[in-house]
Amino acid sequence: MNKQRDSIYAAPLSQVSDFAFDAQVANVFPDMINRSVPGYGTIVDVIGRLADRFAQPNTRIYDLGCSLGAASLSIRQHCSVPGVQIVAVDNSPAMVERCESHISAYRGTIPVHVQCADILTYPLEKCSIIVLNFTLQFIAPEQRDALMQRFYDALLPNGLLILSEKVTHTDPLVESTLVDLHHEFKRSNGYSDLEISQKRAALENVMRLDSAERHIERFRAVGFSTIQEWYRCFNFTSWIAVKGAQDGE
């Protein structure tokens, strides 16, 4: 996979447009995400390892908001459960096109079906795993509760939801400290203050963040019996949530 360097926000812009997962972003996304999200490679790797533990034979695994298919490829690499298939869904045609080429380039025994669709309306069949890797934060906040209920309802008993998100903090000191540390992380990866500022402005109306407490409240409200944060660095976190074994199909 050729990794083009992200320089989308390197030059001053007279007007910063809202961030979109268009062809320009798709071209540089691997570089952008790895230089912007601390531990992204670790998160993706562990998603595959979790799938090997929680996938149930002859079931679907959904990678929703799949972007270029990193989580799907990790699952294909690590999961040895027989008969599983991955359905990778994203609403960006540019991302889906590149995702399909990435999936084709890395051979594996698990079939991956890439779909260009809106996860808000995409019909979910019964499944053993649902992955949302930095996806929910781009869904309108008022639609998140109902969407989470759909995920819970689609999961089989003992099914696993993996949710990775950037979060906010109610304590102003904690919030400002972690934001500053994240900006230092981006500077250490070669982003200028101009790039950081313009990217933040582009995301302001697009990426609407919840607190960690709000995410946990949502998990509990729909019925998840086991909830565990397994990763945290600065304001980036990932949870696993497991549907109870006794819950009906």
Automatic annotation (TrEMBL):
S-adenosyl-L-methionine binds at Y40, G65, C66, S67, D90, N91, D118, I119, N133, R200. The keyword S-adenosyl-L-methionine applies. Keywords: S-adenosyl-L-methionine, Transferase. The keyword Metal-binding does not apply. Its EC number is 2.1.3.-. Residues 61-159 form the Methyltransferase domain. GO terms for molecular function: carboxyl- or carbamoyltransferase activity; S-adenosyl-L-methionine binding. It catalyses: prephenate + S-adenosyl-L-methionine = carboxy-S-adenosyl-L-methionine + 3-phenylpyruvate + H2O. It is an enzyme of class 2 (transferase). GO terms for biological process: tRNA wobble uridine modification. It holds the Pfam family Methyltransf_25. InterPro entries: CmoA (IPR005271), Methyltransf_25 (IPR041698), SAM-dependent_MTases_sf (IPR029063). PANTHER family: CARBOXY-S-ADENOSYL-L-METHIONINE SYNTHASE (PTHR43861:SF2), TRANS-ACONITATE 2-METHYLTRANSFERASE-RELATED (PTHR43861). Belongs to the class I-like SAM-binding methyltransferase superfamily. Cx-SAM synthase family. Catalyzes the conversion of S-adenosyl-L-methionine (SAM) to carboxy-S-adenosyl-L-methionine (Cx-SAM). Homodimer. NCBIfam families: carboxy-S-adenosyl-L-methionine synthase CmoA, PRK15451.1. This is Carboxy-S-adenosyl-L-methionine synthase. The gene is cmoA.
